[in-house]
Amino acid sequence: MITTPAPFPGEHPVSCVIFDIDGTLTQTNDLIFASFNAVAAHFTGRLYSPAEIVSFFGPPEEGAIVRVVGEKRLDPAMDLFLNYYETHLKEMARLYPGIEELLQELTRLGVPLSVFTGKGQRTTLMTLEGLDIAGYFRTIVTGNDVVDHKPSGEGITRILQAVGCSADEALMVGDSVGDVKAAREAGVRIASAQWDSYAIERLNAMGLDLVFPSVASLRDWLLPRVRK
Hints:
This protein is an alpha/beta fold. It folds into two domains: 16-27 and 95-225, Rossmann fold; 29-92. It is built from ten helices and eight strands. The strands form two sheets. Strands 5-4-1-6-7-8 form a six-stranded parallel β-sheet. Strands 2-3 form a two-stranded antiparallel sheet. Strand 6 (170-174), helix 8 (177-186) and strand 7 (189-193) form a beta-alpha-beta unit. Helix 1 (29-44) runs antiparallel to helix 4 (74-92) and helix 4 runs parallel beside helix 6 (121-130). The longest helix is centred in the middle third of the chain and has 19 residues, at 74-92. Mean pLDDT is 94; it is low at 1-7.
């Protein structure tokens, strides 16, 4: 359990916050798995477990799907994936409790908010716009926007440059091992979002200082540390 000392000697304030999407802002893992399996069933006649699907991801969706259907069938497979994802988003995806309130409070305090995700541009915009949170984010960097994907810190570094935030006053919030590695490479603090992470055991072996089991616990730690 993290307690909030006051004051915070030796700590840099938080001047900007970077969020991952899936498993951090949005409960979208089931939608991703269902969309992927709609493609797999159509083109290969088989279904994949969540663990298998997670192992394919890192680059944008194209990188995962091509491993299942091959290069020649990638375009129609992506069309099916995107259609299924968009059609079922309202039914299967939602924000985690407390996320929108946290985004509202940080925005009110003048904190620039950004997104760094491994998702492709199209599913990123579908998700953020479909769940009505796109307007909170000043900068959005997707898996299609970087040369080196997570766990590289390239996307974080690009965001820091875009918003004019120093690494020591930035915070990355994410649920995956890739988020931790990317934040460490970029030299920013990482808040390990463990309210719906599929990698808690691996995360807990990484020597993390900031671990949050709920959005509420992140809020309680973060808001007092925002640069006023």
